[in-house]
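ok new one. same drill as before - structure tokens go in, u give me an amino acid for every spot. 216 of them this time. try not to just spam alanines like last time pls lmao
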């Protein structure tokens, strides 16, 4: 591996891969993160109901893709530092601070990690914010972000159908339809669709089963 040319297919022997479809979308009241729930080890489905949406602090969450072990470790380290930040400063960290921590960890260890992260959250300063940290450790602030193996199949759909300042229900439908198409065409994505809605009112979890989204 040289620089940021990391091959996601060259996992360590027996390593579990979140061959996945993840996304986050801003709406008029905050942000919504969504993900499928399939975890694979090669062609074997190791877990069909994985929760790829991870809380790192309050209303700051992340979606994880790449190596399950790497992304869990990075998320745990970020969570620890954000708890330390709040204890030291007496105020909750912003989404930008969390995303910067993810970026620093992923970039400084880019030759050892296979971790693609979408960090999104709601805070009083920025309201809803989304940061994409792809493999290699760059950082990109976006109105919506998609990642994982299934994202390849939905770039066109998302680009055509995304609108700024959608309502909560419109955003839920947009994410559900996008991920249902990713699941349909990507063999490494599947299971249920999980979402988390982050607003000034806190955290709301949603789950959609195959019968809920198969004709979305």
């Amino acid at each position: 591996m040289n620089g940021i040319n990391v091959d996601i297919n060259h996992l360590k022997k027996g390593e579990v891969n979140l061959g996945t479809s993840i996304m986050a979308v801003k709406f008029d009241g905050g942000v919504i993160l969504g993900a499928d729930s399939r975890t694979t080890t090669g062609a074997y489905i190791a877990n069909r109901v994985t929760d790829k949406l991870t809380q790192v602090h309050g209303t700051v969450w992340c979606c994880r893709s790449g190596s399950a072990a790497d992304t869990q470790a990075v998320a745990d380290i970020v969570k620890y530092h954000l708890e330390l930040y709040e204890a030291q400063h007496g105020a909750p960290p912003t989404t930008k601070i969390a995303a910067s921590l993810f970026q620093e960890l992923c970039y400084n260890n880019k030759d050892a990690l296979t971790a693609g992260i979408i960090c999104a959250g709601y805070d009083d300063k920025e309201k809803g914010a989304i940061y994409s940290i792809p493999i290699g450790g760059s950082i990109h602030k976006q109105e919506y972000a998609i990642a994982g193996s299934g994202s390849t199949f939905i770039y066109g759909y998302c680009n055509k159908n995304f609108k700024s300042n959608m309502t909560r229900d419109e955003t839920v439908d947009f994410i559900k339809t996008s991920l249902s198409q990713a699941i349909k065409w990507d063999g490494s994505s599947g299971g249920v669709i999980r979402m988390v809605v982050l607003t000034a009112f806190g955290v709301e979890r949603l789950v959609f089963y195959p019968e809920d989204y198969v004709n979305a």
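Residues 1-8 have pLDDT under 50 and may be disordered. and btw The helical segments are 68-89, 95-108, 155-161, 168-185, 210-213.
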